[in-house]
Amino acid sequence: MRTFRVELGPNSHTVHVGAGILDRLGELTLGAGLAPGRAAIVTDQTVAALYAEQARGSIRKAGFEPALIEIPPGEPSKSLKMYQRVIDAMVEAGLERTSPVFALGGGVVGDLTGFAAASFLRGVPLVQVPTSVVAQVDSSLGGKTGINHRHGKNLIGAFYQPRLIVADIATLKTLPEREFREGLAEAIKYGAIMDAEMFAALERSLPAILARDPESLAEVVERSLRCKASVVSRDERESGLRKILNFGHTIGHALEASTGYERCLHGEAVAIGMVLAADLSRRHAGLQDEDARRLGRLIEQAGLPTKLPADCRNARFNKALHLDKKRADQRIEFVLLSEIGRALIHKLSFKEIAAILDAA
Amino acid sequence: MRTFRVELGPNSHTVHVGAGILDRLGELTLGAGLAPGRAAIVTDQTVAALYAEQARGSIRKAGFEPALIEIPPGEPSKSLKMYQRVIDAMVEAGLERTSPVFALGGGVVGDLTGFAAASFLRGVPLVQVPTSVVAQVDSSLGGKTGINHRHGKNLIGAFYQPRLIVADIATLKTLPEREFREGLAEAIKYGAIMDAEMFAALERSLPAILARDPESLAEVVERSLRCKASVVSRDERESGLRKILNFGHTIGHALEASTGYERCLHGEAVAIGMVLAADLSRRHAGLQDEDARRLGRLIEQAGLPTKLPADCRNARFNKALHLDKKRADQRIEFVLLSEIGRALIHKLSFKEIAAILDAA
After folding, report:
1. What is the ipTM for the molecules in this complex?
2. Of A181, A189, A226, A266, which residue is the catalytic one?
3. Domain-wise residue ranges, chain B
4. Closest CB from A97, A152, A156 relative to B119
5. pLDDT tens track for A140-172
């Protein structure tokens, strides 16, 4: 088991990464200082069928009495309606201020459960138990929680840190191929924006990763989370540095929002966004052509899309881009690369963005 | 104008109290470091008719472009449905992460707006502009925001500090008599739990306060908020000391919840709760009979109720008491007085509480 600490002052917490550690969830939760008693596991129906009993058994053994709260799988569950259902179930479960809530699942479960835990009784302890690549390499760490609004992704939410993250690599073996590959987009992102060595390692070990070799996966998960932790520790609330984590996300979010979160997975949208951001980086941040090509190649070899579908460049897409919440004035703050492993923030006008989209 | 600072580390902020200072709202907001641009004023229809133009004019002069978001007055507006409407209006107003949201109104407006500001874009700057006695002496300070659930008050919410509080005493002159008196319950609470001198001053100056003498009111508001600030500074998230602020609230909340938030005002419920808590204090915390009588007398002279209506002691009331979120195990944490000006936390069983309710 690989263990490290995320330094966030009073919100500091531990991360465990390893194969098969779901069986130790209860013990690790006690180790994080959470008190046995009532609890809840929030999960989606797909994950529930695979891992709910294992998780429940482990935390029961440690003295917790967990209620199981199931939601339908998929991005549409990040809704105010589903939020309300989870809150209702927490009330029914009789949760108290000290009762831990376990988010067992992928990014959707983590985001929705995180916001519910942040706002139920003004905050109950949250344990992230990510079971997808996206959640294990990225979304379970950093405290961003939220749900979607019809006008945009994550418009409602909170910064709320988990008390513990337990990433069991073994849960990745049951992930459908498309979702597995989706998650690699975020790992590639960490290499691209801040860790050239990791980027090169990904280029070398991609075949082993795609074959879901546990040791290679644990390495990717740990290294990605350590990258993210080092950023989040310095800028918990995204007032500056943390914005670089949005590399590929500005266009990605607009694509997701304008297609009703149904046409492509989050990581696929981010993959397309990263390729376009690399084009913008060549023009506006001095990124070498070869580095842009390396990024495009790695994304492609991971089985991810690299091109914005032509029919997606429409008025809805433009409107979603306008609403992007990283916009501080009439220009959009874009994350660009000056080289592999080094990101910067650059304000671009809609015209400059459109020029790249037109050329792509 | 009376000005002081609430020390909350990175969440520290300023409080201004004075007659007529709504005209300076814009200038004071700039002084708090908030940037001109898009903004929103959330208020209820009653307050809007009286003060929205004055507030809007003042902040416009300072360079803000505020949207006006009106909600129906009253406790039922602290609902998930109204929360959703406020969020929708914020999206429509095109608010950005730096756009201030002004909560212009009483406790309901402050709580609902506070939670909306806490969760929109994971947090936008909040300015509390309390216009009721309850809000000016108590609820605008401390960062507690929230909405109600059918099973209990404030079950959903966040700890979220305002960037500024501007309490204009002049707005109290239009308050209906019942609401005005309601707010005095919270001021009496501060005297009772932590400021014996203030309690004695309230006994002396109650006639001037009830006649709404501006100087007397400013004194009560400032002194109450300073009391609260000193507690909140030491325990922002209610892990210990801050619990004493719930004096009178455990029974008060149960009464409100079990009567559908319609039969009595919050301060009236707290007044009844304080009298019963004084009875419990005589039996369990050594409060002298004379001190309990002084508290009852002051509450009565303020025109507030002192007795739990007989028909309210029913199964719904007991159920609401069981759900109280201050309950850490099967007993309820109660705030009791050992003397006027000194509070302590004591765990009581339902049996011990019932004994006092039966005797009352």
Report:
1. 0.89
2. A266
3. 2-174, 178-359
4. A156
5. 999 999 999 988 889 999 999 999 999 999 999
